[in-house]
Amino acid sequence: MFLKLITALVLASTPAQAAQPSDLPGVGTLVDEHVTSVMAEEKIPGVTVTVVADGREVVDKGYGWADVERRLPVDPERTRFLIGSETKLFTAQAALQLVGEGRLDLDADVNTYLTTFKIRDTYPGRPVTLRHLLTHTAGFDEDHVLGSGSDVRPLGEGLAATQPARLRPPGTGVSYNNYGVALAGYLVETVSGMPFEKYVEQHVFAPLGMKDSVIACGGLGDTRAYLTDGSTTTADCADFAASGAGPASTASDMAAYMRAQLELDPRLGTGVAAEMQRQQYTEDPRLPGMGFMWEESPYKGHRVLFKAGDMPGMHTYMLLLPEQGIGIHVMSNGDGTGGHGLDGFELAHKIIDRYLPDARPPSVKALPGASAEQYEGWYQSSRTSHGSLLKVQALTDSPIHVTATADGGILTTGVKRGQRHWIQFQPGVFQEEGGWDRIAFPEPGQLAISRSSVVFDRIGPLDHPSLHLALLALALPTSLAALLGFPVAAAVRAARRRSSPPSAGSPAGSRLPRLLAWFAGAVVVVFTVGFGSLLADQSRALPLVLEGAPMLIALLVLASLTVPLAAALLACTAMAWWKRWWRTPGRIAYTLVALGVTAFAVVAVTYNLVGPSFT
């Protein structure tokens, strides 16, 4: 099953022993205690958990409510949940079935199969292939999709209309990407001659008896999706069902799928499960990598494959331990206070800690005479969007910071928990001191870490979010001062005019610039309050993006206004100093407002909050 798999990828010196169902006594109690505790603490309405071992379900339970208001309990056999990106497994399976039939080629240019549109030839001689699409290495920019269940476009039409830029040559770095997987789904549709949804229903669901699973929009049924604040959302569908926007399933159906994967069931397609689970790409052979849509996430020496799905108000996790024949699946119909539902990794790690042999991290020795100064700097996720408003997420995602140590190792912040020390045991490859995780620098300016479906690219000081936050720190107080201060100053001036003629320092022609500054300040403040409230609850922001909500578009129009307003204010500032409008303190105040609005406009342009990028 694991031919050509490089044994070091699990980061363990001794392989773990296989576990049998008899080795899982009391697993139901463990699951009950964990789930009920987390649901109460994080206020998650409903959860299902399925644990499969040696071909049978040892846990298959529903907890809480599918619909809180109607008091409909969660039923693992009947309650549907949106499965989000777990759908990508079905897309990979469908594509590999057609590869097995000789109708698709993993290494052919995808344009060979496309007729209504073509992928742009950004890197001549380096075409995008199906292999790239199924390992997140096609190099597409991260972009958003707009739409709702009522206006979802056909798959090919949506792909043609929203093709993102290619940011890196294919096969040179992993970067989780929805567009690429949707394109793989469209290849299935094009070659098979049937809609993607129909193909999956007939060739993925039907052979396994997954009768309660649906790909098409609107199949959620009675289950409600609950956001962090307890409200519900209807944002259950968008373009690109092949990437996970819309499909729904039950715990029992997904248990059947886990069993088929663990057993390498030929009903998935001849050799398909083994190919999906085999490592197909890694940034470095000493690190975990990607299968075909499965992501490797080793834990304490055990090879773990996972796929997670996130939709507004719904979250799923599927984790397999292929060598032990164990599968764990978790679904939640609420964001909870943590924003991600019940964390499947946390539950899986508890089960592994309880029932599988414990192992020590592999011992490594520091490379004599090594230096790590060339790796110092700030590194940002390759999934950071370049061309869409999703780039704004980078403002709240701190880059990884790397500093060299005297012993040739490195210290990092931003790699999960706090500051961590890493030992360089081979050139450019580091292992956490006393831990299992590894870091590598496969290319100059590129960082790869264990358990990640992205790489991290080094950024310069002008690209660091802290600089942009500093610009906002200048913009917001000055804009608020303009919004509140100019009306007060105008009232004072009006009172003075009633008792004395206007001063020579306040010509009539200077009134319009003041009004312009007040309006610009109002625009910045209103946008900041509105957009900040969205970012404060990202579970609510995602539905607005998916639906292209009028509120979001209105806020982005305001952001776009700051560019011409900033230009006008800078011109007025120059005129104020040249013609000596107002007294010196007034000119200084006006200059600060102009600089603040300009700083805001720079940030808005940098994060694609202006112009056609959001339309």
From TrEMBL:
Keyword hit for Cell membrane: no
Chain ranges of the Beta-lactamase-related domain: 31-341
Segments passing through the bilayer: 469-494, 515-536, 548-577, 589-610
Protein origin, superkingdom: Bacteria
Signal peptide limits: 1-18
Keywords: Membrane, Signal, Transmembrane, Transmembrane helix
Listed PANTHER family: BETA-LACTAMASE-RELATED DOMAIN-CONTAINING PROTEIN, D-ALANYL-D-ALANINE-CARBOXYPEPTIDASE/ENDOPEPTIDASE AMPH
Protein name: FmtA-like protein
Species whose genome carries this gene: Planobispora siamensis
